[in-house]
Here is the input.
Amino acid sequence: MNALAVVLVFGLIVFIHEWGHMMAAKRAGIAVPTFAIGMGPSLFSFWFGETEYHLCAFPIGGFVKISGMVDDGHMPDKADNAQHVDEVPAEPRLKPLPSGKERMLTKDWSDATGWEKASILVAGPLMNILAAMLTIFVMGQIGFQVNDVMINGVEDGMPAQQAGLQAGDIVHSINGSVVENSQQFIHAVQASGGETVSIGIKRHGEDVEISATPRSREGFNEGKLSLGVVLTEVMKSSNIVSLVPARSSGYSAGLRVGDQVVELNGEPVSNGLDVLLAMAPFNDASYEAQDYYGHPLDKEGHPLGEDGERLAVSEAGVLLDKSGKPLVSEVTGEPMQATVFGPMELIVDRDGERIPITLPAATTMVSGGVSFRPDLMRLPFDRALLRSLDEAKYSLLGIIDGMRAIFTKEGSKSVGGPIMIFNLIGQSASSDIYTFLMMFMVININLGVLNLLPFPLLDGGRLVFVALKGIGLRISENSEATVHFVGSLILIGFILYVSFFDVLALIPRSGGG
Here is the structure.
């Protein structure tokens, strides 16, 4: 782990968040006596304007002290706030400034309007979200990752099969328009009006043109036109590993950042697509497994439902419910895939040494915890802006999916804590600039969104109290402080819980490389 990168990145993310709170408070005329990065004893401090800035010993978190605001354990009331208010009960004044400085901001939290308080609370998370958006745009100037749209399965009796489309075909155009993602292809098929469409594909390195006529299917996708193909987006990438989360099966098997996968299941590979095509379906009846998110697989590698019953699978590899209808992801809206691959026999090149590694069963290489260094393509300004918005949307959907997983037995064990975050920052710093910026973006947008949740101590929880007081409810400051204190205990407990699994994941296991 690159310790310096962890300290700098995490410190910058916290600075962005707390700076948003501080600037919004000062704009409202509220004094901000203290701004700190890190926790624990202060290593270094200085005054700038009316605020004392601190760099603290432990680079975990940070805080901004807004005069008169409810803390997580107590309310600094105006009569006995020894740190920030002189002991003058009749007319409290803030902590004296160094000689030669004049105080301009004299309001505190209790003097602010409800709208001012709300703007201060929202400002921190909003700055993180804006920082994520800016990072995505910078990534666009370096180049965005490019995906191939691959046919993952063809349904029996549907137009795609009748026209000769096959699993493994790479779709690059439809009716002469370039296909950059699966949604473009699906939209073009649905907008065809039932007319024959021309599909440009690449098969075994050769360009092929195939014509097919979409048709609707009653009881599926609300009767919309379809060709009967299951698509997957494959990132164009090298065969160099860029990330291996410590919780993943790939890490446990011995894969590390920088490893170059040169062979998979006896087939030579030179890029990410080669890796995908070399993966063999998994049918070892003696092997029990889980996917990366902890969802159970039966002995034949098929996913199980919540009731433990085996889910049916269509000919195209799509999960079916008990009535035979395809299961659709609530997050992506796409059919849920059932194909499981593995175990996978890899040969990796690490500093000139060839090392054999066996990955257990997984739904994809990524679900096994393996990401490859992407190929990048620069986009014009307008397309880069639209792509930035898309990336932000997908990140938000991922957060929603992750929050749902927290409330399941298996999913809660797959949620990463601070140790996991530090591990990923360190890995991304030793990988490539795109992976590093992607990690910076993901952490920023996660911090921004999660802080808006209506949970005690978080900014969203404080917003709830502002709203309740705004509609006339009388809530004492001590009661609010107590709620935040209980919330802090719950959050600390949860962090300790997920950190326990983070530590277990980092402990070398027998058989690992």
Observations:
- The two ends are 17 Å apart (CA to CA).
- Confidence is low (pLDDT under 50) at residues 72-93, 281-301, 509-513.
